[in-house]
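step: validate -> pass
step: tokenize input -> pass
step: predict -> running
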Amino acid sequence: MMKSPVEFFKTLQKKVCPECGQQVSEQAESYLMECDRCLSKKSE
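step: predict -> pass
step: emit ->
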């Protein structure tokens, strides 16, 4: 039996920042891998 799309997305693992290991709170359109704190430390 197939899962509904809602159930599929509810069961995905949370994204974790590879720099510090903190859980990343993300928006649906975000493709960023680092958390806001680590992103703010980077210079462009």
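step: describe -> Residues 5-10 form the longest helix (6 residues).
step: cleanup -> pass
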